[in-house]
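Bench log. Compound arrived from synthesis this morning; before running ITC I wanted a structural hypothesis for how adenosine monophosphate sits in the protein. Inputs:
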Amino acid sequence: MDTTRSPTASPRHRLSTRRRAGSQAHHHPAHDLHEHGVAAIRNFLRCHTCYDAFPVSFRLIVLDTKLTVKKALQCFLLNGVVSAPLWNSQTSSFAGMLTVLDIIHLIQYYYRTTDFERAATEVETFRLESLRAIERHLGVAPPPLTQEHPSNSLFDAAKLIIQTHARRLPLLDSDSETGQQVVISVLTQYRLLKFISINCHKEIQQLHLSLKRLRIGTYVMSPSPDPSNPYFPLATAKMDTSVFDIVHIFSERSISAVPIIDEDGVVLNMYETVDVITLVRLGAYQNLDLKIREALTQRSSDFPGVVICTASDSLGTLLQLIKKRRVHRLVVVEGEEEEKRGGKKGRLLGIITLSDVLRYIVGHADISEPRMKPSTASTEAPSSTPIS
Ligand code: AMP
């Protein structure tokens, strides 16, 4: 089913419910097993470096800050990536990351300050180095210049990703002769979780407890404390919401996707920050008044679809899915259990992103657990995938 075109199409991927973890959560052995699995995964991350998580082969695209935004976007599209480290060739140093959020800020800036036509022409000549000035103008926090040495442990890298709310971490070394910085790679949340899912097979099977019980993700509060938003604290949109309104939500709330729901709260689709890139490619700076219904028809045919799950799915099932598919977020909807209690199948309950999963796995940033014997997990090489 093509989720990108038909508003009636329900999201097509469902995370299978292997077992009803919620109902067995009170059994101590299951709980202990789960805790043991999490501890073993943390230990695995402490015992491996960022280098270990590199794919066998990968491309690294680094953009010069003198490049125009237009060329940078073309480069993204040609290479199928949505972010890249920036390099200042005047100072020969790393200059942060260019991400979709920067493009969103640019769109907002132009939407507010100039007419559309001028925006479209100016964007073509605008250089990446000027993006930080735009962020200052908009009053949004500049992205942190966070970085990590690739020899450091995956556990430390994961902690840094969580602490800085970054979705990816540039890995930098320095040249032993010149002392200059060298960008080695970028560690994404997805790569990190995929590395766990590939290598911690046994541990993942122990992660029986349900996503809802573990409070992984953001869930609708019932009753809602905000009369204007029945799905509080979730940000949602309807098919006739304008793209610009959603762009504004992305920027204001610092989120990367918004579920599209119908009048009953049933999830119809999802609009993501990467979708904005498609619009920009189509020269749609003029087109942000477009309704989501129309914007979704412009999605490329290889859009992977929206992945849904129910609150009783287990963390282990989710990690198994990450192993198979490049999934970045899941929508939690009401299932049969909720329906029995007067709910409605498919109605929005929550959203789970990779940062939620990673935050749970890493635990509190100050946790200090005794180092266990290194896990026997294999360091099976992940398939060759471009970093993004
Ligand atoms: P992300 O950066 O996409 O991983 O999301 C950051 C945090 O925002 C996570 O804790 C998500 O659960 C939460 N989140 C993601 N999307 C939404 C949304 N549409 N409304 C409210 N919270 C969200």
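What the model suggests: The pocket of adenosine monophosphate is lined by residues 167, 217-218, 233-235, 255-258, 351, 353-356 (CB under 6 Å). The two ends are 27 Å apart (CA to CA).
ITC booked for Thursday regardless.
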